[in-house]
Amino acid sequence: MVAEGAIPYALADSTELSGLAVPFKSNTLNVEVDGAAAALVQRAVKPIDKRAAVQSDCTGSRGTATRTSLTNCRTCK
After folding, report:
1. Which parts of the chain register pLDDT below 70?
2. Which residue in 31, 4, 6, 33 sits closest to 20, CA to CA?
3. Which of 12, 53, 68, 70 has the greatest number of beta carbons closer than 10 A?
4. Does the predicted TM-score (pTM) go above 0.85?
């Protein structure tokens, strides 16, 4: 199992993506999965709304944008 890709980013004091991205590649993991046992396990990771904590000092338009993004993520399928 490996994760590889690139994460786009915005420059400082901007909300527009710069067109640039930081590449990443994780270490490679070799795993054996018992599919039948795995199928019996409920979601191991809590939904994003239970994992995301917006700091109290995240206010104004950035705070609104952050909370709206989290709400939109909950409704994506």
Report:
1. 43-51, 74-77
2. 6
3. 70
4. no
Residue 37 contacts residue 58 (beta carbons within 8 Å): no
Q: How far, in Å, CA of 64 to CA of 9, rounded?
A: 19
Domain definitions of the chain by residue range: 4-75
pLDDT score, position 46: 62
User: What burial class does residue 16 get, using C-beta atoms within 10 Å of its C-beta: 0-12 exposed, 13-18 middle, 19+ buried?
Assistant: exposed
Q: Is 69 helix (H, G, I), strand (E, B) or coil?
A: helix
Question: Hey, how many other C-beta atoms are within 10 angstroms of the C-beta on 21?
Answer: 12
What does the alpha-carbon distance between residue 48 and residue 56 come to, in Å, rounded to a whole number?
18
Can you point out the beta strands (E) in 1-77?
A: 4-10, 17-25
pLDDT for position 72: 81
